[in-house]
Amino acid sequence: MGAALTQRPELYNAVVIQVPLFDMLAYTHIGAGASWVGEYGDPANLVTQPYDKVYPDMQARYLAASPYNLVRIILGERFDTDTADNNVYTRAKGHLEAWIRDGILEREAEPALFAYFQQFQDPDTGEQLTRKGLICAGQLEEYSAGVVHRHEQTLTGPKKDRTELLKHTEAHYGQIFLLYPDETGGVDALLDAAAQSEPLMRVDDGYGSLHLLWRIAGAEAIARIQALMADKKLVIADGHHRYETALNYSKESPKADAKRVMMTLVNMHSPGLRILATHRLVHSLAGFDAAKLVAALGALGTLRKVASKAELKAAVQAIDPARIVLGIALPGASYVLDVDRAAGMLDVTFLHEQVLGKAMGITEEDVRSQKYLHYVRGLDPALEQLRAGQCQVAFLLQPTTVQQVADISFGGGVMPQKSTDFFPKLLSGVTIYKLEK
Predict the structure, then answer these.
(1) What is the pLDDT of residues 425-434, one digit of tens each?
(2) Helices marked H in 236-355 — which ranges?
(3) Residue 203 and which of 34, 212, 333, 382 are 20 to 30 A apart at CA?
């Protein structure tokens, strides 16, 4: 069996979606490029970033945006007066039940898949791109089955939190982001065909990405996509903790719906699929000596000093699969380290093992606890933090490639934490998968 999308179409009938986003009778279109605005307001005020990307200031903005913003369910407020009977999870359950009862959320009338496009600018290269995804309910599989593959380890804390939310509400609010190999682009062609009509949703997420949604309904259309996906293997791009939470919960729940989880599937050969580098900034390291670090780096490969930020950025952005290229920015001086790539070696693994570990004495336990490291997306923000004195040295990485993710995942391996940053993130609340039967 393949990715378990060969189920009967009616098994997709458990998708619950938000009336203010998708009930066309509730909407009027207010002009080119504008959002759909209906009885419950702009959908941009209802959906959210993934729960693990919702920081306190963002949570406050979401709470103020609408009484129906999904943050009340996926990452609600906690209070000192919380009890076993009144806490963040019981309140989430109360909101979901009330929104369904009051018609804020409404179940799809027939089985449906969704084409989910994200239009964005690559923050490093400036390219304008479109990432095309398919939202569906997919079968949960053990990693040992060889259908769904991971690329990173998970932590206990986030899974415990997501398990409590799932137990209380019995619903999934954000899709697991998975990749599948399809060089022919068969599914993408069907998504493009669906996208010829007016989108059901158009949301600017405030981070430079436009999110668009189209419904794909009808047994014939669904069956065509199921047939194309039947032999595909999947790699988790984002959502490892939520996938494993759903998998564990499926073993406890008597409901058939619990055997599936909401997914967005993206072709790993799509030109709109981008992974950004996550740069490492070292701070608060006792006895840090820049001169000793430079000497240690010189023993690892070819180290050259660069004269400008432009030269540093150009070196880091010039990808050569046979080379590991690492930018090193120190107060008053910048360098580029060029090393022959050993078979299977990732840039991030080289940095952690040879530089952070051996050259600087930062242990794996230090890394897990984020004792000396801060992670930054984007070369300019990383260099700005160095200029502001917020770190001792900035290590600028080239992005992990999709091929490296596929090779390691399909080979049964895992990457270090924060090896990949798939951009942009999938919004939560675009669709909701309720475990009903």
Answers:
(1) 999 988 888 8
(2) 240-250, 290-298, 309-317, 347-350
(3) 382
